[in-house]
Amino acid sequence: MRGEEVEPLAGLLRALDEAGYHFVTVTPETHRGAVDRRGGEPARDLRDVFGWSLPFAPGLLGAEIERLLDEAGAIERRPDGRRRSRLRVSALSGRLFLHSAWPTEEEDSVFFGPDTYRFARFIEAETRDLPPGGRVVDMGAGSGPGGILAGGLLEAAEVTLVDVNPRALLLAEANAAAAGLPVETVEAGSLEGIAPADLIISNPPFIADPEGRSYRDGGDGLGTDLSLQWAVEGAARLNPGGRMLLYTGSPIVSGEDRLLGRLIEAMDEAGCTLRYEELDPDIFGEELDQPAYAEAEVERIAAVGAVISRG
């Protein structure tokens, strides 16, 4: 059944690529401001529909693109006669990726944004010295950009995308199909039962989210618990000589990185080496007014990259 769902989605990406579509997805607040400045006017082109998530009039997309979107069950029909895409499409490293329309407020929303671009740059930088082939696992894959990018760069023998959200895995399969990359998808919230890998990548949720949304909430420890848990799980499933790339966020309190010390201790216990870098000093600053951060006097949230290696 999933194959029947994947085909129109992958076809939509191919049609948009042929049409020269390109859109870079911004933060939710930047998106909100851009939409507000449009003053409620309808979509004028493909970027308005699949990038800015604006309502569109029938006929705007062209018959083929609208047919594929409709076959995918991704058209919202509004009382005023206009329509709206339930999906967005973003460009990354020469490929197009499906993810959820703005605003991403539903529990099973599939997020894609500036963190995705930082994650991609991190993967590109840290896989340059790796041999081709091998097995790649993307833990918490979402719509699959990390695993698809890494699999393509390394010409991986196998690529496994793991996520707890079936909606995300459907989009990941479509994104992989459009990229011409065979993948296996596994619906799971952990790596239990996943075979050892040569490269494990992960971009876990890391916000202390008061609503507990699965695509944002990093758990306790000011949102660091999930990152630590996935690092420990990933380290345990690396083949000898394998590497894990963990891109995440860490709260900085009185100049102290709250994730780093915990990771050092955990990786020492796991018998793995750790290389750690602050990639962006200040992300999601709007979250600092939330009670969890304000009460802990968090100065900033940093984007960090951890490279975990098994000798």
List the helices and strands and how they pair.
Blueprint: H1 2-18, H2 28-37, H3 46-50, H4 63-71, E1 75-77, E2 83-85, E3 87-92, E4 95-100, H5 114-126, E5 135-139, H6 145-154, E6 158-163, H7 166-179, E7 184-187, E8 197-202, H8 220-223, H9 225-236, E9 238-253, E10 256-257, H10 260-270, E11 273-280, H11 291-296, E12 298-309
Parallel strand pairs: 5-6, 5-8, 6-7, 8-9
Antiparallel strand pairs: 1-2, 3-4, 9-10, 9-12, 11-12
Helix pairs in contact: 1-4, 1-7, 5-6, 9-10
What would a concise description of this structure say?
This protein is an alpha/beta fold and 311 residues long. 36% of the residues lie in helices and 25% in strands.
CATH superfamily of the largest domain: Vaccinia Virus protein VP39
What's the overall average pLDDT, rounded?
96
What's the architecture of the largest domain in CATH terms? 3-Layer(aba) Sandwich
Provide a count of the helices.
11
Number of strand segments: 12
The percent range for strand residues is: 15-25%
Gyration radius (Cα, Å) is 20 Å
Q: How far apart, in Å, are the first and last alpha carbons?
A: 42 Å
Structural class estimated from helices and strands = alpha/beta
Number of domains: 2
Topology order in helix (H) and strand (E) letters: HHHHEEEEHEHEHEEHHEEHEHE
- Which term fits the overall shape? globular
Question: What fold name goes in the CATH topology slot of the largest domain?
Answer: Rossmann fold
Helicity level = 25-40%
Report on the biggest sheet: 8 strands, mixed
CATH class category name of the largest domain: Alpha Beta
Low-confidence stretches: none
